[in-house]
Every structure is written in C-alpha cells, then in structure tokens.
Amino acid sequence: MYDGVLMLETGVYFRGRIFGFPKEASGEVIFNTGMVGYEEILTDPSYKGQIVIMTYPHIGNYGITYYDFESVEVQVEAFVVSEFSKNFSNWQAKHNIEFLLKKYKIVGLEGVDTRALTKYIRTKGSMRGIISLEKDLKKLYEKVQKVPPIIGQDLVKKVTCKEIYEPFKQKGKDDIINYALNKNLFVNFDDETQKYKVVVVDCGCKFNILRWLRKVGCELVVVPADTSLDKILNLMPDGIFFSNGPGDPEGVPYVYKMLEKLISYMVNYNKYLPVFGICLGCQMIALAFGGKTYKLKFGHHGINHPVKNFDTQKIEITSQNHNFAVEIEEDEGNYYVKGNKDLRVTHINLNDYSCEGVEHKKLPIFAVQYHPESAPGPNDSKYLFYKFVELIKKYKNAKT
C-alpha cells in the first residue's frame, strides 16, 4: 500500500511507502549515485536542506556504524530509496537504517521508482520537493510552491559549531562523537614530532576531514563560521582551513568577507598563512578574490567523478557533493577563475568541465571543489592534505 508521496515543484509526483519517522519534509531534491556510503551521506552536513535520492536500488544491508558518521546527527531533510534493508550483516553495526532515521526524526520514502525519478531530475534539474502523507495532491502542490529555493539561503548557520572546540581532546555527549573523534581511537599523527596549529573554519565540516588533518600533523581548533579574523589570528595558527558546507556560497557573505580581510592582512603585512579549502571552502576562496558562483543543473553527488589535475596531467577519481560551482574562463589554453587571473584553475571536471580546484599564483592559498578525504569514495587525492602541511612548514620556517 502506497501511503506516502514525493511532490516536485513541477507537479510531477512519485508514490512510495513511508519508513523512518513519519512526518512531512521539504527541501532541494538531488540524487547520489554511490552504491555505498549511505551512513556518510546521511550525516554529511553538506546535505542540509536536501532530499536525497539514492540511485542504487538496495540500501542499508551493512547497517549503521557510528565510526562512519560525518557529524553528530543525520543532516538530510529526507531520504528516498527503491528498497531499504531491515536486516544487516556487519559485525561493527549497531542498528539498521530505519532506527537511525527514527532517532533523528527523519522521514524516508521507499518503494519509489528511483530510476524514473533520477532521470527526471537529471533532465529537468534539481528542484524543490516535499514528502508527505497528505492525500490531497492539489494541496500538496500548493505547499511545495511555498518551499524556499536553495539559491540565496544561508544553510551554514544551521550546521556550524556553536562555540570553539578542539577535536580529539575531549569526549562528546554520546557514542557518536566518541567513536568518530575520540583522541585515542583510529587516528594518530604520522609524525609525533611534527605538529602544526590549524584553525578550521567550520561551515559544516565532515569528521573525516578532521581525521585527515590530524593524521598529517595538524593540531586542530575548530571555530564557528562567523568567527572574526581577529579572533582567528589571536589563536596564533600556522594555517587556516575552510571546510565543506551546504547551500549557496553567495548566501554566506560573512565567511568570504572574512577571507577578504585575511587576504588583505597577508598582502599588507607580509604575514603569510597557508589556506586550504574543500568544497564550499573552495567557493569561499573564489568569492573572496572577486569570483562568482552558479548553480549546477543537478549537482555533483557521487563517488566516481573523474577530475583532471592540470599540474600532473593525471586523472583522479573523486568523491563529490556540491550543487554550485565557480565560474571560470580560458585564456591561451589555461583556465582561471573568471575575473581574476591570479587564481588559476588546477583541476577540472571531465564530465561537464566545471571548476574542481584553484590555487593562487602568489599567495599560499589553494582549494578543491571535491572531497579528497573521501568517506565514502576513492583515495586518489589524499596528497592534498600533505601539500597543505608542506606549505605550513615552508612558511613557518621562513619566519624563523
């Protein structure tokens, strides 16, 4: 019996069965093409404000493991699958997927023709949608028209930390944070004698990014996204990292305007702090240098996106999750952020030739649009974390 429906803003709807927490939920409807990684997807703060469709037909057969979480709670607005598995086989798993959705009051919809739904979104583009038990389709269509579009929204304020904290140095309030960020669990420094203080500007940072920064030698201090430059500099960092996060980058001006001040500080005082950005962090860097961003037709959400590295001329298979991209332009075979030739494009997507990485020609600032920390996904781009640390070493040694 079909007791739930996903209504799209175009009036097209898809019926299914409600699982998880029975409630009404709305958001931007997107699809993820990964066969695995549903735990990371559900808990990735970059999915805040989104209804996620999984294109793989069978989801949940390895259960829920706290160590695989990317934040302390489920972040998606709703979850759509063809079929979810009540049973699971995994010695580390604690619960099935429905338990998790119920715990965090997230609605799921199964029994949906996800092939047809994905093809529709791919053709028409990502759009607003609403999942409901409402029987009156006309009423539901009227509701979805009132759902705010993702463009212009500040979703970062919903996922950033509320206060400064140091991961790996304290136990959290529940098992999730203890499994994911306990200082004695899973993550050790590559070299205990080489440690560098890095401030993480939390726009919705994934746990695995924090794990990798720690692994390569970073002592981390995580700060809220709206933290002022003065407060960050008072922490005396050796480098600054700008994290991933949800929504429209141009809807978060307080982050890129703070970055503008940081750039001016470096130029005016000849005090250089290496800066690394991932995903939304990449877009923040482009905006701080006068660039522009635009909304992709249906976004990049999956774990096998091919990217060309212009520096090595090699192809990297990457994990991606973004709805927006940086505007770029070509000049004599080279690519730059549109409007600023000092910010060169280092990586490009081979599916649609959108920007996947930038680096400043003079300042120690670089970023990628994709997720080198994977979780889930391939490990082709882990070198970027080591590159960040090498930059920190270079500029720290130059001070002494």
Task: Offer a concise description of the structure.
By secondary structure, the chain is an alpha/beta fold.
Please identify the top-level CATH class of the largest domain: Alpha Beta
Runs in which pLDDT lies below 50 for 5 or more consecutive residues are none
How many strands?
20
| Quaternary organisation | single chain
The secondary-structure element order is EEEHEEEEHEHEHHEHEHEHEHEEEEEEEH
Summary keywords:
single chain, eleven-stranded mixed sheet, 10 helices, seven-stranded mixed beta barrel, 400 residues, 2 domains, Rossmann fold, alpha/beta, Glucose Oxidase, domain 1, globular
Give a description of the structure.
With 400 residues, this protein is an alpha/beta fold. The chain has two domains: 4-144, Glucose Oxidase, domain 1; 156-399, Rossmann fold (3-Layer(aba) Sandwich). Helices cover 24% and strands 31% of the residues. It has ten helices and 20 strands. The chain has helices spanning 38-43, 97-103, 114-124, 137-144, 175-181, 207-215, 229-234, 253-269, 280-288, 383-399; strands at residues 4-8, 13-20, 25-32, 50-54, 58-59, 78-80, 83-84, 107-110, 127-132, 196-202, 218-224, 239-242, 275-278, 293-309, 314-326, 328-331, 334-337, 340-349, 355-360, 365-368. The strands form three sheets. Strands 10, 11, 12, 13, 14, 15, 16, 17, 18, 19 and 20 form an eleven-stranded mixed sheet that branches. A seven-stranded mixed β-barrel has the order 1-2-8-6-4-3-9. Strands 5-7 form a two-stranded parallel ribbon. Helix 8 (253-269) links the parallel strand 12 and strand 13. Helix 8 crosses helix 9. The protein is globular, with a radius of gyration of 21 Å. The mean pLDDT is 93.
